[in-house]
Design goal:
With 252 residues, the chain is of the alpha/beta class. Helix content is 43%, strand content 16%. An 8-stranded parallel barrel has the order 1-2-3-4-5-6-7-8, surrounded by 7 helices. Bound molecules: phosphoenolpyruvate.
Length: 252
């Protein structure tokens, strides 16, 4: 079964406007394999100019790194999915571990964000992943599958099949430590099996599951070659255009 292959970047709270636009411009000129899609997860304030810049660039699109769970109203400083769709932002990342940890985003709130994103026809990259403590306890598969169940299993089959999932073990994000290709494959397989149990084999086989956590050009090829790994969500290494281009070209 061939699935979409995706190299997604996550700039987090990095770059100035000028540096960010230059990075996007470089990626827009990068060599990208025919069957690979690139998503740039960029700061809110650069989204519209980046969307305009990338309008005629095939295979490269952008994502907001977050959105609010309410439709609109008195939520000073927040950004709604309606706002994102009004600037034709195609993707939104939901549930990044930094959002869960530093902004106390619960599974319930993430489920609301997912619903808001669907209401505005945004494509979702939904992130999940366990802490080191949970990994050490050996309960990581149950934990991650529960995160997914709590925020996504209320969706219809038609909605669910549109998702992209990013498995990102927290202990590997920004630490230089990466899950071994075997650990990534084992978790991705467990996630896909949980999709199959809920939505059937055909839907489960369709959904891209990305790995995130210190992906670099040196380890991307081996990680992406695993049967259930369909690409990466890349933080630090996506801030360097040449490095990210190598990762984009690490699919077999
Ligand atoms: C991330 O931001 O989702 C991430 C995986 O970061 P890094 O690649 O820097 O570990």
């Amino acid at each position: 079964m061939s699935r979409r292959k995706i190299a997604a970047g996550n700039w987090k709270m990095n770059t100035t406007f000028e540096d960010g636009m230059e990075l996007a411009r470089k990626i827009s000129h990068a060599s990208i394999p025919e069957d690979v899609e690139v998503i740039l997860g960029i700061p809110y304030v650069y989204l519209k100019p980046a969307i305009d810049m990338l309008l005629h660039v095939p295979k490269v699109s952008v994502a907001a790194q977050n959105c609010h769970s309410k439709e609109k109203g008195a939520y000073t400083g927040e950004i709604s999915t309606h706002m994102l769709s009004s600037i034709s932002c195609p993707y939104v990342y939901i549930g990044h571990s930094e959002r869960r940890e530093y902004f106390n985003e619960s599974s319930e709130e993430l489920a609301d964000k997912v619903d808001r994103a669907f209401a505005q026809k945004l494509d979702i990259v939904f992130c999940c992943g366990e802490s080191l403590e949970i990994r050490k306890s050996g309960n990581q598969n149950e934990y991650v599958c529960r995160q997914i169940e709590e925020s996504l299993f209320h969706l219809t089959k038609e909605q669910f099949r549109k998702l992209v999932i990013a498995y990102e073990p927290i202990w590997a994000i920004g630490t230089g430590e990466t899950a071994s290709p075997g650990q990534a494959q084992e978790m991705h397989n467990a996630i896909r099996s949980s999709f199959a149990a809920k939505y059937g084999d055909e839907v489960a086989a369709t959904i891209p599951i990305l790995y995130g956590g210190s992906v670099k050009s040196a380890n991307a090829e081996e990680i992406f070659s695993q049967a259930d790994v369909d690409g990466g969500l890349v933080g630090g290494a996506s801030l360097d255009a040449e490095h990210f281009e190598k990762i984009i070209n690490s699919f077999s």
